[in-house]
What does this fold into?
Amino acid sequence: MEKDVAKTVPPKAAGGKENFAAAANGKAAAVKASDGDVAMRDATPSNDRPTRADGAAAGASPSPAGTQPGATGASKGVTLPLEVGAELDCLWRDKRLHPVRIIERQKRSKGGEDEYKYYVHYKEFNRRLDEWVTLDKLDLTTIRRSGDGGKGAGSKGSKGGDGKDKHGRSGQKKRKHDPALADHEHGLSGHGGHGVGGGNVRVHDPHGDPHGHGDGHEEFDPASLREHEEFTKVKNIQFIELGRFEMETWYFSPFPPEYNDCDKLYFCEFDLAFFKTKKQLQRHMEKVHMLHPPGDEIYRNTYRNTKTNKDVTLSFFEIDGRKEKIYCQNVCYLAKLFLDHKTLYYDVDLFLFYILCEVDERGCHPVGYFSKEKHSEENYNLACILMFPSHQRKGYGKLLISFSYELSKKEKKVGTPERPLSDLGAVSYYSYWTFTVLNVLKAYGEDNISIKDLSDMTAIMQSDIISTLQRHNLIQYQKGQHVICADPNLLDRHIANAGNFRYLVDESKLIWTPFQLGKEYGGA
It folds into this structure.
């Protein structure tokens, strides 16, 4: 703990020359997109004068300054350095002031009034937007005492929406009573939750958590959650370079201790080895001759990108965690930078990794991946899924999900992803389930079809189908039984709202044999 010299300075509003490191070169805030990926939008201020999130100009009728240690109010100044846990307003990339809580502080090399930088959590946003800021971004006139019950990392920004559905049941046609619904009461409960790293299955309250995916930490008990948030509260790596792209990271990842002093890491896009400097990466690339992920290529198809009017070739590689342990561990390190809830696996032997690549004359460039257990008693067909931020909003996330279900069809099983789902993952899955299930209902028209039939055709677990239908108010309780109600116009509207599915899996181009656990481990 450093020895601090308390300094009292007059409070000032944030302003002056803004240096938005995280928003440089058009970097943007993460917002939810209709297709389940992350939408990137430029932060375009309406004017040059910073305003609060409520629209008021900075410094206009500021809230009374709280009493900080050593400070007696705005008229008598604020004690520097600011204390960890203090709450005040901070200038964000949209040039508006937003309430933040100081998570950590760190001495800078320069001295004087601005000798500290502060790691802040924006209370309105998800933890992925936490960042280091300097004193000139903080509005000292709004400083206040941190509330005892204030939530930090898991603020409302981590929720996946308000979960309120529009009720439009007029003109719907009744379908046959489905026995699969018999065990569900009128208020159907959400999915169970199973953490990536283990834990008990939990049933979520559909009203308290309408998306059925929780806050992303259902595998933790309260004590473990506090320990997790304390250990991961500050991002250790700020940026990574992967191929042609530089990406700002979202969360902490437990890289080896020798990388603790690095703000930026350089990844080889072919073997995912990582380095402290660009020069180290360049020396490594001179020795790399395999211009694709290790493992077996099991799918390749060329699609027409309707946005660019150009062809794009996509490929999937299957990597066995037992055979390519270092590569798969590096995948986990990389993924943890963008997934808050992921448990890092050092023992990856029991997992298969499926890497999605864009293919060109320079090689196969990874854009995302998913992993799955080699054998799952709970029929999980996906353990972890990630689209790199540089390739989000391209429709690749839905392709990853679709591919996981195509593998389940090949295995002649139904599948479901491990819980909890991240906020962005839940949006993508509900979009895929909506698109797939409702298209089947539309194709069957007025013919009767059961939940089991839907599950057999789509490889989607019955509980996921039920929750999707309930979410769109397509299940009604009438005359003592549940019935599926689907007006064609309502189906079309929900399918359109599910987003654009640009890339669908061509089953004829999938060359894959299901993994045989017994052969590898000497089983029967």
